[in-house]
Specification:
alpha+beta, Alpha-Beta Plaits
């Protein structure tokens, strides 16, 4: 089972670099990492998926992340009921006689064409990783020109509020950049 972690960090330059370097130092591979603004100003929410199934490595990853000074909160939601989705754009080239088949595949997978010409289309889709993989496999009968995937984004399900991260409760630590500036000015 892949480990899914939600990390709340201060939105500062280099924070993703420090997190990825942390995984590199531990010799762990990141399957996907997705970052974006959260509901609180100055705080970024990161979803990390890595391929470690044993409890020891999973707890090591979590505890090591918590030690980084720009990290505000770490939550391992691997075993917590969650909504996990991925976004993808797929550009395919088709022949004139393949348009009906492409439309049938797109309709079946709840995707949509967001930009199309006579022979090239860009398809947009969202869903679980397996659904994205299934669509890509179905589209392999055409010529796939480009694929862009967001990586997994995760949120704890509504009925699991005891696992929800409250940003208001987080005590903001000084981030690395902020600490460097404070030290330089003192």
């Amino acid at each position: 089972m892949k480990q899914t972690i939600i990390v709340l960090v201060q939105n500062e330059p280099g924070v993703l670099n420090r997190i990825s370097r942390h995984f590199y130092r531990l010799n762990y591979n990141i399957d996907s990492i997705t970052a974006g603004r959260s509901e609180a100003m100055g705080i970024t929410r990161i979803t990390i998926v890595c391929n470690h199934s044993d409890q020891y490595n999973q707890s090591l990853i979590k505890s090591q992340l918590e030690e980084l000074n720009t990290v505000l909160k770490v939550q391992d939601i691997t075993r917590v009921p969650s909504v996990v989705r991925e976004y993808a754009l797929i550009k395919v080239q088709i022949q004139k006689d393949e348009a009906k088949e492409l439309n049938k595949i797109i309709k079946k997978s709840n995707a949509k064409i967001i930009d199309g010409g006579k022979l090239v289309s860009i398809i947009e889709t969202t869903g679980e990783m397996e659904e994205i993989e299934s669509l890509i496999n179905a589209l392999k009968q055409f010529k796939i020109l480009e694929i862009m995937r967001s990586g997994n984004m995760a949120m704890v399900k509504v009925n699991q509020d005891e696992h929800r991260i409250e940003i208001e409760e987080i005590d903001k630590k000084k981030g690395w950049a902020t600490q460097q500036l404070s030290d330089a000015l003192s």
